[in-house]
Amino acid sequence: MSDTPIKRGLEGVVVTESDLSYIDGLKGILIYRGYSIEELAEKSSFEEVLYLLWHGTLPDAKSLTEFSDDLKNNRELPDGVLQTIVELANQDETPMAALRTIVSMLSGYESNLESPIDPTLVLQQGIRITAKMPTILAAFDRARNGEKIIPPRKDLSHAANFLYMLTASEPNETKTNTLDTALILHCDHGINASTFAARVTVSTLSDLHSAIASAIGTLAGPLHGGANQRVMMMLLEIDASNSDPIKWVKKQIEKGKKIPGFGHRVYKTKDPRATILGSMSEELGTSAGDGRWHEYSISIEDYLAQEKKLASNVDFYSASAYYQMGIPIDLYTPIFALSRIGGWVGHVIEQYSENRLIRPRANYTGPLDSQYVPIDQR
Predict the structure, then answer these.
(1) Of 288, 173, 281, 182, nearest to 235 (Cα)?
(2) Active site residue 189
(3) Which of 164, 225, 290, 323 is 20 to 30 A away from residue 18, measured at CA?
(4) In the predicted model, is pLDDT for residue 248 greater than 60?
């Protein structure tokens, strides 16, 4: 028995140090290795941000080209993996579960898993997994819809290639830039649940594939990933019922229901990522000549900010952005994983560098003097 104070959900407990990202929840600030998320979203690319998180510095032109080429050259999947993807699709597996299963399966195609804590090896494996995850997800979606799987192209960026494999059509610049930015914005966010799961896994000196599978499984839970799916379902319901967005939200609140896409465990003001994605969602609507999704979102956001003092988070605007790019709603959380692997790999490298087995305690609340009764007397 113990009277040690309990921190439910480990809220406020500092468990490690990290150079990867800094969050100021009161001011709405997010920084990757010293660079503001606003500057990276405007000037950088997902590939460049991956390099920054994994190597600690921004690459020069030569290093970025080599790094990007390495990703492009590792996009293809072995035939056995493609076959398993088709089997999972035919079994009505969920996209997140399929992604978790296939990432785990990829370890069987690695020949050098004996030294999981070698930083060079972790980076090589990180590149291979990161490069293949979009191929896995696009192939799964096409297989479950009975469509031909589209092989990756080496002449397209990470974001553009995913949209191409998903839709069999090369995306325009607006869609490519939007997804690239979304990948940057979701890349790392401190010791969130999935990142912590990855660090716990490798604190046992387990391997990267196990860590990423753990992280994907954690992200699949609705309290971590999935909020943008619920946001889009909300917007679709408002649209289908020809409801006034504010009246619809009021009714939901009266029923005691939470509005998805608002509030955050860390941010006490508007999520800076929501500001960036909001503008991109508006641009997509303008480009398509259909601004209703952004208009609904703005109405809801303004109302909740003024009347309930609630601020939007990154999920609120990523929903309408993804929808306007033609991405199926149940792929929103897997796309989160396609991005967050950047942070996961970076944190795995940090954990290995100064590792100590993560082993918290629990206060025991059960009995201390139970008397054993033989089975024939129970």
Answers:
(1) 281
(2) no
(3) 225
(4) yes
